[in-house]
Amino acid sequence: MTRWCDMFTPRQLLGHLILVEELNRLKPQILAEHGKERGRAIVTYLQFVIDKGLDYNSKQTRWEYTRGIIKGTFGRHDYSLKWTFGEMIFTGPQSGVAWGLSQVLDAYRGIAELVKLVHYTYRDCDLPVEIHCGTAASIDLPDRSVDLICIDPPYYNNVQYAELSDYFYVWQRRTLGDLYPYFRRRLTDKQNEAVANPARDGSTKAATETYERMMKEIFTECSRVLKGDGVMTVMFTHKTQDAWEALTRSLIESGWTITSSMPVESESAVSTHQMDMASAVSSIFLTCRKRDTEHQAPATWSGFGGTGVARRVREAVRQGLEEFQTLRLNSVDEMVASYGRALRVLSENWPVYDGDEMVSPIRAMNEASAVVAQYQMERLTDGRLRVDDLKAETAMALTLFGIFGMGEFAYDEALNLSRSLNISLEGRDAGYTVQDGMIGINDERKGSSRSRDDEEIGYHAPLVRSGSKLRLVKPEERHPKRIEDPQTEWDILHGVLLAYREGDVPVARAYLERHAGGTIRVIMDLLAVWAAEIADKDLKREAEALLFGLR
Predict the structure, then answer these.
(1) pTM above the 0.85 mark?
(2) Which domain holds residue 63?
(3) CB distance 238 to 153 below 8 Å
(4) Which among 262, 264, 321 is positioned nearest to 287, based on CA atoms?
(5) Within this chain, do residues 308 and 407 fall inside the same structural domain, yes or no?
(6) Which of 2, 82, 183, 369 could form a disulfide with 177 if both were Cys (CB 3.0 to 4.6 A apart)?
């Protein structure tokens, strides 16, 4: 539980409380002089001035040394430990309070300027605008009465809006509690918020189910009020497939078709919740229309001779990647933007079956991921490195590396990808001979649980499994016997990296010449992809240095 002393210094807390008490002292006078409505507005804007100080005068702020300014409490979407923080003075013309007042006045002038034309046009008659404030799951509008719906839904588990809002709510309640009825609550409403919140719902699975249910209620209500030829746009930003699965499943099952998708840059690449975090800096705008569910027959995923929805997904993603070139998207945004293209095809053909199994949105996204990973490899190597030209184990390992890096991923996701590449996942106890069309998986060994016959620690397979999760094995985790007698290009890639660590470029070059044979160019291309895509900065520098030395 966060306490006041965790958020503010005694000086900051005293200053904020004095401002609150002074506003409460002036409130009756303001209401008496300006009337109920105008007076309430003035008090509200003065509270916004206090809020500005709360945001920029706490132990959660940061000093932005590159610009010489204080960054506010919510430069991140959470409450995190700050070793140092900035602080504003409370009195004088250069005080934080004076700055907060100038900021609020500037914002008010901007809003007034935007609505000036509307004000003068309709000052003698009723405005042709209605504003309804409430839940999107129950809209007080007639059926088929809306032309356009523009929705920016909560981004799954990215931001816990209500929990963060409590930071301001508890202060606003002290000054505005008697002016607005919704301040009767002690804290903001967490139960009716459409987010994935494991702390609220008890588990990650339950949080996902709650988010899907609430978003489905919202999308169903949107479908009710939208005209038959109306359009709904949905803006979404999240890099994980779980988030896209939850959102798009609720969207598609509510009777919507995604008719287009486009990435639009919406985040600063140098913000603290983006920089060096492999985050998406673009929001994906989905255009949706009502789907004709009465005359739609189920579609097949594979189809006869590869004519099914899977092929159409691959074609749509490939076309999208070519269109995205001019946008210069980072690798994460490129992947996320491709999800929109894949989900468009899936929604247009919904429901889609692979045998008796319904194809989920995540299956379509995995298909997109494989296409993007292959596309990125070809681009990084000027078209020289193609997955189809590699041994199956290398092709699968490289595709997984392009999508997930060295992090963990679900076994089911790897299984879907393996189906796309026609490569089987094979569990192996220890050493094995690589066969066509397969990739080996070793079980992760913990502590002293390894086999007595296995004198040396290491994995023969490029993949290890722990429960329902898989991950790619690091070069230093590979079994020495597999490195000494490599069977695939992926083994040689790991071997040349380990040789470089052992004795610099000469030893790496000798290993490469000894084992690569006529595939030296392929290994060099693999090393280029490794250097470009590996997230760890030290490993990236290592690979770049080795690549430079071998050329």
Answers:
(1) no
(2) 4-129+164-183
(3) no
(4) 262
(5) no
(6) 183
